[in-house]
Specification:
Aldehyde Oxidoreductase, domain 3; alpha/beta; nicotinate-nucleotide diphosphorylase (carboxylating) activity; NadC; Probable nicotinate-nucleotide pyrophosphorylase [carboxylating]; 12 strands; 6-stranded parallel sheet; NadC/ModD; TIM Barrel; 4-stranded antiparallel sheet; elongated
Length: about 280
């Protein structure tokens, strides 16, 4: 089931303010200030132009509220809703100048996060047919990590690490710098607490065989095709969590998940997902 709990407002408040300041510059919304009467009111419907899953409405609507506390919003299709072209997902009303000022930032956020949720939805469904789950990675847009990872959860995926301090993930460069797999694992177990999970990346079955002799929580099977993954899963035999990674695109999920893997991590979900096409229909008085 999708996790629809958004990050706390304090997590993304500064992001919204920075995005609005970027758009307003030093002089503000010149066009709206000059062309739109100060007393004009606006009503706008946010609607969808393609099939998809909505994510990011709380952030988009908070954007409007930051521009003007007089703006009111009505949510018709909340985050997690599956929508089709023409569906109205929210209605925004308030001073016309303020609504026009906030529309682009709000729509950018909503389109971006809904696009991630939409792609994740399909990948998660394909993985679930084989008992696997789909996770995102740290390949996120700088400054948007908390929101993009939220969108993955709304799409039915799960989150991998949020940052470098969120668990141990030993990769090939760590192994090389430490002087070998045994050396790096000895160093880790002597320094981290019992609550910290340890995952190790391997790219061959020989490396996996060595790893299976050590007490680790999860293995990251990197750049292995479905056939090799099937062999790796058989070798692990349930002794640790198995995760596949490396160039996996959404259309490849089903074949990879059929290997019996527990988890597939796709950087694609956050670095390449197209935005969901949304529109605004305005009326003024």
């Amino acid at each position: 089931m999708s996790d629809l709990t958004p990050p706390p407002y304090l997590v993304y408040e500064n992001l919204l303010k920075t995005a609005l300041m970027e758009d307003l510059g030093l002089a503000g919304d010149l066009t709206s200030e000059v062309a739109v009467p100060a007393t004009a009111r606006a009503r706008t419907e946010i609607n969808t132009r393609h099939d998809g899953r909505i994510a990011g409405l709380p952030m988009a609507l908070d954007t409007f509220r930051l521009v003007s506390p007089e703006i009111t919003v009505e949510v018709l299709r909340p985050d997690g809703s599956d929508v089709k072209p023409g569906d109205v997902i929210a209605v925004v009303e308030g001073p016309a100048r303020a609504v026009l000022t906030g529309e682009r930032v709000a729509l950018n956020i909503l389109q971006r996060l809904s696009g991630i949720a939409t792609v994740t939805r399909g990948a998660a469904r394909d993985a679930a047919k084989h008992g696997a789950r789909v996770a995102c990675t740290r390949k996120t847009t700088p400054g948007l990590r908390a929101l993009e990872k939220y969108a993955v959860r709304v799409g039915g995926g799960v989150n991998h690490r949020f940052g470098l301090d969120d668990g141990i993930l030993v990769k090939d460069n760590h192994i090389a710098a430490a002087g070998g797999l045994d050396a790096v694992l000895d160093r880790i177990r002597g320094r981290v607490g019992h609550m910290v999970k340890v995952q190790v990346e391997v790219d061959s079955l020989d490396q996996l065989e060595v790893l299976l002799k050590r007490p680790v929580d999860a293995v990251l099977l990197d750049n292995m095709g479905p056939d090799m993954l099937r062999q790796a899963v058989a070798m692990v035999a349930g002794r640790m969590v198995t995760e596949a990674s490396g160039g996996i695109r959404p259309e490849m999920v089903a074949s990879y998940a059929a290997s019996g893997i527990d988890m597939l991590s796709l950087g694609w979900l956050t670095h390449s997902a197209p935005s969901l096409d949304l529109g605004l229909d305005f009326s003024f008085r």
